[in-house]
Amino acid sequence: MSRAQCPRCMRPQSHCLCELIPQLASRTRVLLLQHPSEVNHALNTARLAALGLTNAQLVVGEVFEDLATLLNPPGYRARLLFPGDDAQLIVADVVGEQDLPLLLVVPDGTWRKARKLLHLNPLLAQLPRVTLPEGAVSRYRLRKAPGPGALSTLEAIVQALEILEPATSFTPLLRSFEALIEGQIEAMGADTYLKNHGHKS
Asked: In which domain, by residue range, is 61 found?
């Protein structure tokens, strides 16, 4: 028999995270394009980001038929948050009243799946890219990162928004994320966690 699930955060009712999810406003609009393989993942941080930001949208798929519309909401200029040779380091979005705020487009999936999203959606791959400064430390603790500075989707969004909008704190978004991690560690048991993850910093 399956456990009752919260329809909002998609967690078991006994581990619902909704009380920890803030409602934060941002000038930047966040568009999350989630690979279908991530939807039912226990650590679905993109969903937490979409729930915690009032100016965010989560779309699931591999090929997005309405991508041109998604990437061109009135009053925004789109940038893809993804590394690349031509990616520009993300900086504070110090803009005048005449300048358009950013639409930050964030592919969500493993690196391989995220690259596949770009391959299958040429409009996405053609967007100007921005990337985060090096040296970020993930709080993930449960997935082996492909390299130093690799962050979960939620952490990457928080860091990007903190840079873009330094007058606002977006760290409350991480409360539900940290509770999610603690719950997963508790579920697997301390011995299993230490055996599989304890030696990693």
From this structure: 23-197
Tell me the sheet residues that pair with 105.
Answer: 31, 80
List pLDDT tens digits, range 23-71. 999 999 999 999 999 988 877 899 999 999 999 999 999 999 999 999 9
Closest CA to 157 of 22, 12, 52, 9: 52
The SS3 assignment for 80 reads strand
In contact, 82 and 107? CB cutoff 8 Å: yes
What are the backbone angles phi and psi of residue 197, rounded to the nearest 5°? -130, -15
Confidence class for position 199, pLDDT limits 50, 70, 90: very low
Structure-token pair, residue 138: 């993930």
The model's pTM: 0.85
24 DSSP assignment: B
Number of domains in the chain: 1
48 vs 9: CA distance, rounded Å: 7
Asked if the structure places residue 31 within a domain, the reply is yes
57 contact partners, CB below 8 Å, separation of at least 6: 29, 30, 31, 32, 50, 70
